[in-house]
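request received
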Amino acid sequence: MNTIIRVLTSLRTTNILTGLLIILLVAGAFIMPTNPSYRTINQMGLFMWLKGAPLSATWWLYGSMAVLVLLVINTLACSAESLIKKQSGRNLLLVISPQIIHIGFCFIMLAHLISSASAFHLYGVLYQGAVAVLPDGQQIRLDRINYETSQGYIVWMEAELGVKDRSGIDRVLKIAPNKPGLISGVGVYLKQISLNPVPRALIEVSYEPGAKWALVGGLLFALGTVLLVILKLIIER
Amino acid sequence: MIPYIATIFYLSALFHRAFLFIAILLQSYYLISRGLMLGRLPLVGLHDTLIFLSLTTALFYLPIYYYVDPKNRKLLTSMVALLCAIFSLSGALATASSAPLPPVLRTFWFELHVTLSFLSYGLFGIAALLGLMYIKNTEKTLEKYQYLTILIGYLLFSLSMIFGGIWAFYAWGTYWLWTPKELWTTLLWLVYTLYLHLRYRPYWRGKPVAIVGVVGYAVVLFTYLGVGLLMKSSHSF
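response:
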């Protein structure tokens, strides 16, 4: 038991796992662009995509996930040990700030886990006046496309959607790049527009349940890192 | 024309450091005037980003210049000047894009993401050169400044990734896309994470960890130039 705890709380374990993760991701970075299975990876949750992809293309992803699970356990164990053992005689902020970073990292991992399990991204071309049905039964209708051009390029665009919920109530939703609409927790995104021969828009319907946890994790990570950098600069000077 | 003149001044800094300041002023003037002309941040395409990278590398060297031991200044200044000259010339040779930004890039999150990325790349470049100097003459202050430079670069790079995730969520409906660029960005972040953790291990302190800091910059260059030129990703516009 003591050996397990020692290994779990060891910085050496962190370094070995991080090194292993780097090797796996390097392998993945070369497999991903050349393997056709990866064309659909961004259209669904990772776990669902993995079910239909060949092991020859995904072994590095399984390996990375296993290493990340161990890394999260190692991170939590190291943080717990630091807080329990190293408080006395040290600057409290210097002890706490790396732990804030670690918790932020764990939240980001949690976000990826949640998204991998249940995220989805649906794409469809919607012609002006046409109706599409969302997974929860609500309907969206492309009413109008607005845009501005400069030097022949589209510099601003917007789609006006009519949204009809299951009780039949209509409302207008305006979406634009970087300004998605939200319908019952599902994001509706305007990707592209085309005006000829018929006005139409490429719409993405996206459900990303891990996003809020990723934001929490990112903010904690940023806060911890800012604190740590300031403290380290003060100490080193 | 100005980027070529700035390159000549960077190369002249191999003989006298004062030319480095002139090159910095020229590049600053060029990017500011280009930003005013375009009415946006001039950080889209190889031309702008390479010149900005050259400028940030030189700018971040200025505080280091005053802190390092005077006997190391000449060689370090020459190395920085050469690196900046290479980036500046490459930027000058690349075609400048003056087309209006596509709608998806017209957001504060994109500007933050890209600016912080290149600021961190500049810092990682200085850190790599400090690491090379340290490997050559094992002077402790050089390793200390390499560490501090990487620590600040790591903070900026982490913030850039967080802001990139927020932007991606607004633009593409997800904070994470499985593309080579994202994977290499994560690899880059992991290499510097490994650097920061390895430094706590006595066995790795000194030359081994300085080498990891240098290797990190090779990953920076591949992530920025190699992936962008060789692989298709969400970062191709």
